[in-house]
Amino acid sequence: QVQLVQSGAELKKPGASVKVACKTSGYTFTNYGIHWVRQAPGQRLEWMGWINADNGNTEYSQSFLGRVTITTDTSANTVYMELSSLRSEDTAVYYCARDGYCSGRGCYSWFAYWGQGTLVTVSS
Amino acid sequence: DIVMTQSPDSLAVSLGERATINCKSSQSVLYNSNNKNYLAWYQQKPGQPPKLFFYWASTRESGVPDRFSGSGSGTDFTLTISRLQAEDVAVYYCQQYYSTPRTFGQGTKVEIK
Q1: Among A1, A77, B103, B109, who pairs with A29 as Cys (CB 3.0-4.6 Å)?
Q2: Using a CB-CB distance cutoff of 8 angstroms, which residues of chain A are in contact with residue B106?
Q3: How many angstroms separate the CA atoms of B42 and B54, rounded?
Q4: Mean of the pLDDT values across residues A57-76?
Q5: Would you state the pLDDT for residue A107?
Q6: Taking CB atoms and an 8 Å limit, are A111 and B104 in contact across chains?
Q7: To the nearest whole percent, how much of chain B has pLDDT over 70?
Q8: How many CB atoms lie within 10 A of CB B51?
């Protein structure tokens, strides 16, 4: 069965960086894209960006441009999301999520599979 | 960016009664070449990731009870719970995947009256 398992909670100081891992299993890693979505306390879900696990191409939300980097380790079927220059407003649960369906025409980004979430707390 | 706006923000419904959640997109999410609406619905309970309920606006994900239905096209969409059960208490989100950035509604909290 498809599983996305994320790394554990992080406590960071303002200005630092955080790198969250999303280890996937149960499907062919390079056949689907992986997205990152965050949820600040009491806020809506916010899409951050995604990576095409086949060719490594990325797309990021303008809200995070310059601060977020998504990468893969194909040998480990793992995707990483690094967020830099952290501020208190970045305190949130960060989720990875897999594309719903991919074909030769591209991928459709509904999210049937999610990681369990990683709480990142930014505090001095 | 496509802005997704849900209404109401919260609603309280008696057990066994109908609950209706609306989602409006700031531009159409209907792709004319395949006549599909790039709209998904999720249910989220506290401490859990969202759970996919519908994609293509009305295609029910496997395992979702048939008391849930999704409808709408273009810019206006609806999630309906025909007979509310206690386990349906949650926050529901719509999401468009028509364009980047993917965007979500602000959520609608469903409670028991």
Answers
A1: A77
A2: 44
A3: 7
A4: 94
A5: 86
A6: no
A7: 100
A8: 17
Question: In this complex, is the C-beta atom of B74 within 8 Å of any C-beta atom belonging to chain A?
Answer: no
**Helix and strand totals (H; E) in chain A:** 0, 11
**What is the separation, in whole angstroms, between the first and last Cα of chain B?**
36
**B102 near B3, Cβ under 8 Å?**
no
Chain A partners of B61 at a C-beta cutoff of 8 Å? 112
pLDDT of residue B35: 93
Q: Is A57 on the interface with B (CB under 8 A)?
A: no
Answer whether residue A105 shows pLDDT above 80: no
Instruction: Enter the tokens of residue B41.
Output: 């619905």
Residue of B nearest to A117 (CA): B49
* Closest CA in chain A for residue B9: A44
